[in-house]
Amino acid sequence: MFAALRAPSNSAARTFSTSALRGAPKSGKAIVSSLQAGTKMDGLSVFKDVPDPVALPEDQYPKWLWTLLDKPKGVPVAPEGERNFMAERKAMRDKNRSTIKAANFMKTT
């Protein structure tokens, strides 16, 4: 059953996690903050004796912060001839979830 998982990969290149800087916006896309630097953000302090935070200039925030609201890219596509285990795993989870819901529905009726 798991023979395909134990088989060596066709690609000789080893994959590592990508840097957060790769997902940073391109230089052509201007980043504009909703607050100007030095603006006091009322109500954001969660501690009683700590003053409310003050907005910093945009260049003092990490580059990955500006990509948090971008839409996710989705499930990566497997190269030709290889299996996409992430997509298969998601399909199995969805199928199992619907099977459990159907079985639970039959128990209540």
Automatic annotation (TrEMBL):
Subcellular location: Mitochondrion
Keyword Mitochondrion attached: yes
One MF annotation (Gene Ontology) recorded for this entry: structural constituent of ribosome
Gene Ontology CC: mitochondrial large ribosomal subunit
InterPro entries in the cross-refs: Ribosomal_mL54
Record keywords: Mitochondrion, Ribonucleoprotein, Ribosomal protein, Transit peptide
A family per Pfam: Ribosomal_L37
Region (Disordered): 1-28
Segments of skewed composition (Polar residues): 8-20
Sequence similarity: Belongs to the mitochondrion-specific ribosomal protein mL54 family.
Record PANTHER family: 39S RIBOSOMAL PROTEIN L54, MITOCHONDRIAL, LARGE RIBOSOMAL SUBUNIT PROTEIN ML54
Protein name: Large ribosomal subunit protein mL54
